[in-house]
Amino acid sequence: MATQVLPDVETRPEGTDTTGNDEPKMFHYVKKAKIAESAVLGNLVVALCGETFPVTKSPKPGSPVCPDCKKIYESLRPGGDDG
Asked: How high is the mean pLDDT in each 10-residue block of the chain (83 residues)?
């Protein structure tokens, strides 16, 4: 299982809004530092669009991405942040 890493910005897509077969309908961009914490401890993460959810799935290439998160991500300056 490969994990997709986004360059220069400390966020990556994470899933929410599950379908009937437990697959997320779309993925949201989330700060990388919070992903492992959520996966291990069950803490909620906050996506760039503001949606809050626990990390349960990793995106696969071609997975649908939240249009709001994508718009925000594309407007960010390269380099990310520390959090």
From this structure: 48 53 74 87 92 86 91 82 53
